[in-house]
Amino acid sequence: MNTAPPLLARRAGGPAKRAVATGSALVLLLAGCGGSPTATAPQATTAGGPTAAEKLYAEVNGMTGQQRRDKLVPLAEKEGTLDLYTSMTSDVVDVVIKAFEDQYNVTVNLYRAGSETVLQRVVQEQKAHYQGNDVVETNATELFDLNTEGVLATYDGERRRMVPEAGRQEGWTATRFNLFAPSWNTKLVTPEQAPKTWEDLADPKWDGKLSMELSDSDWYLTLYGYWKKQGKTDDEINKIFEGMAKGAKVVKGHTVQGQLLSAGQFAVAASNYSYIVGQAKAKGAPVDYLPYVEPVIARPNGIGLMKTAKHPAAAMLFTDWLLQEGQALLVKQGLTPAIVEGDDPLKDVEIIPIDVEELTKNGDEWNKRYDQVISNGEQVDGN
Amino acid sequence: MITASPTAPARERAMPGWLRRVATPKTLIIVVVAGLIGYLALVPLYYLIWGTFFDANGFTMGGFARAYGDPRVGGMIGNSLWFAIGAAVLSLAVGTALAYLNVRTDVPFKGLFFAASIIPLIIPGILYTIAWIFLASPDIGLLNKVIEPIFGPGFFDVFTVWGMVWVEGLHLSPIVFLLMVAAFRSMDPSLEESALMSGASRWQVFRRVTMPLTRPAIVAAVLIMVVRSLESFEVPALLGLQNGIYVFTSRIYFVLRTYPPDLAAAGALAVGLLVLAVIGVAISNLVGRSSKNYQTVTGKGFRPRPMELGKWRPVMGGAIVVYFFLTVVGPLLVLLYTSLLKFYQAPSTEAFASMSLDNYSELFHISAATTALKNSLLLGVGSATLVMALMAVGAWMVVRSRIPGRQLVDYFSFTPLVVPGLVLGLALSFVYLRSPVPIYGTIFILLIAYCTRYMPYGMRYAVTSMHQISSELEESAQVSGASWWQTFRRVLLPLLSPGLLAGWIYILVVSFRELSSSILLYSPGNEVLSILIFEQYENGQFTVLAALGVVMVLTLAVLVVIAYKLGAKVGLRQD
Q1: Does B54 touch chain A (CB under 8 A)?
Q2: What Pfam families has UniProt attached to this entry (chain B) (predicted)?
């Protein structure tokens, strides 16, 4: 028995080793057939001419009013399904989908995730020529990237032309805005003490009581650009942000920030979404964001049609509908719609949109700078 | 050790003989298992390595420069190591002590152990961490309010590295507990008894006999704990950032946040972890393999008998009650309390007056809730069973066989531990979007993701148990004419069952929380519970989230009780 094992073991080992080798070969084969797995170069999904979906879009883009609906509804109901990818929160999107399905005989398949994940998912699928979704509704930044990848089709119509200019972008159209505004705990901050301007947040009285969010570099770059335009020097602007960051409590996630604000972990949150604070306020939590500190910074969320849509008529009908009937629904859910009809509650409030173009061009740079600002308030290179 | 198997006579010359030898159940099973482990591990690893070292222009080390070039990297590594080692030591001490008391002594309140050891694992990290903020924040912490008259304001501060170590260590201690329970169950108490008879004190016995015998389990626990804490995201993000304490994962988060995600930098960070992990696995094998020292399950019959604690019994009982209150009752009460409110507020008559079950009824109105629960159960049970079955064979190959290259199986099964969840999701969607078999868009892609993610834990649990089983048992079975498969099924599997069951429970429980790859890979109709949690979190519905957490704890606690009851019938029984 002492001599037998090595021989037998070697025999048993042969196939096992081969299996391991076959396993790896299989992986290499599978992975290899798509070229480099991480290549970022956009692959043209529509190498030759417009897709069938694009032809339909082009035809309908010129139509208006009832004629347009009459064209789309029968086609959409014949398709019967809509594949929607969105980063809209589930409480809102559930209401939206239900209303759409009640109105039309179209079933909506929903994929919901954070905006970065939605972007990843669409890009992965498009590169593999997989027709996962017909329409995508998400944050401006991600839509910009998707348009750069060349997967979004041109959409036009009377509803789009009613959207403010900042929301009419190549490949996508704004549907709603998230508003960044300072908010405070009303048990810890009286209305007189509450911040009146963004500059107030740098006041040393907030040291150790102000919270900033980890990933709000888009808010940072927009406010930075706004102050620059107002004639402030880089040094002055950096000083204000340093003042805010001094003793700031950095939090990851706006929801947690809202929770901790109402629990009194800090007195003021620099850049939470107004709707999150509004929801908590509606439930009776001791928080407020009114009157607005101006300018309110608005991050557009928009919708884009896929060039490769399997259900192009349903996609277009949903887009039209979301910009028309859907807008009132969004208002009911406490969101800020892209198209304001009738009374505008934000009429006298100065609103500036996120500088999406700067964000897509130099987002990395701004990320790094914001990261530096919040990490220790150390000197940031002015440029 | 392999012995001559009667089904494989040594005939070297003709093809039929070769074929017959290859086609034995043993080689088939080994080939399939090795193939699967290799396949599951290599897909994400290949994607990660490729992304780290190659870009559009060929080979590059740019990722390393971006990942480690940050001027704060020194402090970050320092914080990371302090945090990871601290959490590992704490969870090891707590988990081992609890396991020892539970299995080997007549300590009172054994029923509490169960809850104390499993519940922290079930509560999603984000809820557990926030519950601790509500308990031990210097500004609003309830514990601080209670002790303020004696110790002054802000005695506990959870927003420090020590606070992070505390929360993470307690949250991870169930992994150690499960590993060590399995190890202690399979230990022959006669060794300890002889030491006691020879005049050693109980402490000496514990230190000089008990601990050395469980060294493979301890090494496995340390290995998993350190890597897990290095990767942990929720605790550093929620507790560390408030005071500017940055760790490794904050970097991974930053580099993956941009578009296109900086896979090279994320990969470079993961490669750093990989190197640590490979060294760890090598040490673990060196320690485990060196001799028969750890083989406590031998041909000699034994029955683990609890040790009498004597006058220490009430002391230990008291310690357990305190621990139970700290790790389970405290956070769970905070969750329960929060789940009954409209928004979180410190306890007051007002708060109690506003309590209702609204959040629970809201849960039942979430359209996907039942589907998600069903899918999570299916995936949890499915991946736990598959992984433990694969790893039982895998562990046999690594520990017992003399197959050349067997160490590779061990390394491969461990690598998914260092692959960030998002990268795993990207790798899988990349492969299966191009696969002719329609797996993408079905629940099977989630099953593959879960099996890959939990393979490392399964392997550690299985290998640790395998180290304890003496090879003489297999040898005697084979001498008596049993085939390899019979031996494996009738001798090894029952002996391995405490370890396999512990691994199974661990995987079941944590799979309910898996989010980072699920969120990218799920499709309509295949929602899982963790995605609902994420949605409630995004909605800002923290109180509903707390309700969901309470429901999850109850569901999984029932499941785990059933598993233990069933498992007790198979494995070694206690008195």
Answers
A1: yes
A2: BPD_transp_1 (PF00528)
Which residues of chain A does B425 touch, with a Cβ-Cβ cutoff of 8 Å? 120
How many angstroms separate the CA atoms of B208 and B215, rounded? 11
Residue with more model confidence, B572 or A228? A228
Q: What one-character DSSP code corresponds to residue A64?
A: -
Using pLDDT thresholds of 50, 70 and 90, give the confidence band for residue B386. Answer: very high
Angle, helices B443-468 vs B421-433, to 10°: value is 120
User: What would the mean pLDDT of B386-397 be, rounded to a whole number?
Assistant: 92
Interfacial A residues in 312-351 facing B (CB < 8 Å): none
Asked if residue B422 has pLDDT above 80, the reply is no
Residues A18, B344: C-beta atoms closer than 8 Å? no
All residues of chain A having their beta carbon less than 8 Å from the beta carbon of residue B403 are: 9, 12-13, 16-17
Contact B540 A279 (CB under 8 A): yes
Is B75 part of the contact surface with chain A (CB cutoff 8 Å)?
A: no
Query: In sequence order, what are the residues at sequence separation of 6 or more whose Cβ sits closer than 8 angstroms to the Cβ of residue A197?
Result: A293, A294
Distance of CA A143 to the CA centre of its chain: 8
Cα–Cα distance, B38 to B42 (Å, whole number):
6
What φ, ψ does residue A32 adopt, rounded to 5°? Answer: -70, -30
Q: Is the CB of B346 less than 8 angstroms away from the CB of A20?
A: no
Look at B184 and A338; give whichever has higher pLDDT: A338
- Contact state of A260 with B519 under an 8 Å Cβ cutoff: no
Whether residue B117 contacts residue B330, with contact meaning beta carbons closer than 8 Å, is answered with no
Please give the Cα distance from B93 to B105 (Å, whole number): 17
Domains in chain A with CATH codes: 52-177+299-337 (3.40.190.10), 178-298+349-376 (3.40.190.10)
A20 contacts chain B (CB < 8 A): yes
CA distance B95 to chain A (A): 30
Among chain A residues, the shortest Cα distance to B533 is held by A90
Q: How confident is the model at residue B561 (pLDDT cuts 50, 70, 90)?
A: confident
Q: Which domains does chain B have, with CATH numbers?
A: 27-54+66-295+311-570 (1.10.3720.10)
CA distance A7 to chain B (A): 9
Tell me what pLDDT residue B105 has: 81
More confident of the two residues B12 and A297: A297
What Å distances lie between residue B461 and B491, B497, B499, CA to CA?
18, 10, 6
